[in-house]
Amino acid sequence: MRGMSRRRLLLSAPLLLAAPLVPGLIRPALAQGAALSARDQADLRRVEAYFNAMTTLKARFLQVAWNGASAEGTAWIWRPGRMRFDYDPPEPLLLVASHGQFMQFDRELGQPTVVPTSATPLAFLLRADLRLSGDVTVTRVERSGGFLRVTLYSSRSPAEGTLTLVLAEQPMELRQWVVVDAQRHETRVTLSQIETGGRFDSSLFEFNDPQFLEKEQMRRR
């Protein structure tokens, strides 16, 4: 059980980035944004338009932590404000964002942990009006093999690490994100079987409902 708990921690912590990180370990290069070309700026506007036009996304995900631990599951993103990552068995983790809060729930332990959604690296993706400027600093825009990679960090909290978005260009579609924390640990989340524009049951996200956690535990029995 101790080994499994350690595995859960390594899988979930980089995705949440909810715990305080060590400012002294941040790379000096993150102190300022990149000098973006006109092409870079145009591509960033395309990325903004893509996310701002998105209402829902459902996909399978593969998460690989810095130590090689991996897990799969199903992700739901419902903009603005809601997302859900439901890990496949035997991993008992469930992550849900709704109403400005982000919950991590371990179905085996029956213990939820709730932090502000703003404490997670994906929080800005859930904004009603996403902008890759202001409180978001872009450090790099790269293009290769039909993919666009945008690396960024929080202008207010640069010590928390970076987030890289990987998008297919034609048509534009989110395929992967990479989180690098202050200790330089990298976690990759890759999407497949992507569906957009579908309708979701709002009960998937309502973890403030007193019966929500009980229902989620029953789903695995």
Automatic annotation (TrEMBL):
InterPro entries linked: LolA/LolB/LppX (IPR029046), OM_lipoprot_carrier_LolA-like (IPR004564), TAT_signal (IPR006311)
Extent of the signal sequence: 1-31
SUPFAM superfamilies associated with the record: Prokaryotic lipoproteins and lipoprotein localization factors (SSF89392)
Keyword Iron listed: no
Keywords: Lipoprotein, Signal
The protein, known as: Outer-membrane lipoprotein carrier protein
Organism: Roseomonas mucosa
